[in-house]
Description:
- The chain is an all-alpha fold.
- It is 80% helix and 1% strand.
- The chain has one domain: Growth Hormone, Chain: A, CATH 1.20.1250.
- The protein has 25 helices and 2 strands.
- The protein has a two-stranded antiparallel ribbon.
- It is globular and about 60 Å long.
- The chain starts with a strand and ends with a helix.
- The relative contact order is 0.15.
- Residues 1-11 and 430-442 have low confidence and may be disordered.
Amino acid sequence: MTEAVTHQPGTMPHPDPSTMKRAMVAGIIGHFVEWYDYGVYAYVATMLAAAFYSDSDPTAGLLAVFATFAVAFFARPLGGLFFGSLADRIGRQRCLATVVVLMSVSTFIIGVLPGYASIGVAAPVLLLAARILQGFSAGGEIAGAASFVNEYAPRNKRGLLSSLLPAASATGLLFGAVLLTVLTSSLSEDAMGSWGWRVPFLIALPLGAIGLYLRLKIEDTPLFQALVSAKQADPTPLRSSLSEQFKWIAVAFGATLTYGVGFYTVMSYMPTYLKEVTDFGAGEMFIVTAAVLLAHIVALPLCGALSDRIGRRPVLITASIALVVLTYPAFVLIAEGRNMFVAILAGAVMGALIAGGAAPLFAFMAEMFPTRLRTSSVSIGYNASVMIFGGTAPFISTFLIDKTGSNVAPSFYLVAAAAGAVFTLLFARTGATTHRDVLRQT
């Protein structure tokens, strides 16, 4: 191990600037790879419905695709429990290298699966199995990356630097949207339906190799190394997390609602939503989706830096309240489908507000928990929230539109989620919020 970390008893270990920069790149680019792989599924949902399910009822097929999307989220807590516990026992870096391989391979598998016409009911079963593997990987990624980045970041930049994780997620989705738009405009409808949709999944393998290379080239975090040196690593972090940190896990669960539901309702589901409820052409749909993602990406570091100045909770609460007020009118403007620029403005506002619920979140969660239990505790709270409420968002949105006949029905779900986050944050205070507190709890 290189001598990149200096540590004296009673002080915070500090990495040198070069090591910290490489650590940020490894964590953030690896996160981009994970969420490109994970999110591209929603972008080709209608094509997956045609390829993997009977075409007798298009709505039923789309619901089945989103049900598969949602079921994969039930694997996330399992992956979070497994990799979170492992990361608290053997280190963050090795677990992050493992999950990026698992995600890339499972995504590649979707790209080579035969469809319903070839193998019948086995096709959706195999698709579900691949999605479960993706969910298992994603469960280990988010808490590991949040712990990794925050344990390297200096205190006064934690909000800013950890906001780059959701920015990487959104950039991964944007890359997927751009790629799909290029394919759609370059290929005929028959070609896209038969093989073109597979290309984004096949690209996962080389992207995963890049993520693996970067993560293998960086050593573990200074705080974890200090924990191991002091022989204070917890042998049973899951049990200790549930017995010692249950209150704060519940806070992490509630605080995640705005971002968890917002991300999958507005960013991930948006292309399908626009296709189903508006008359926009493919180019217009891409422009609206890209604008929403760009507004989200730009707002993330601004909100993260703001949380470093005024605190995590004020930013999270303000963004969530604003979403409660503005989500319904924004969906009304988008659903009208008459003016692309109005839809861009409405979507961009939601994207920016969701950034306010995302940017401080990972620093907020990481600071609540001691180093020895950090990854396990974040995994439980965050993944359980996303499993129950976030991963089901596209399915629930599609179901609500179908049953109510209202194209703005998805807004009700996001408003309820943001209100739940506000309720949690108003009645909760963070646990460890300073380096001194973190070291004391270590």
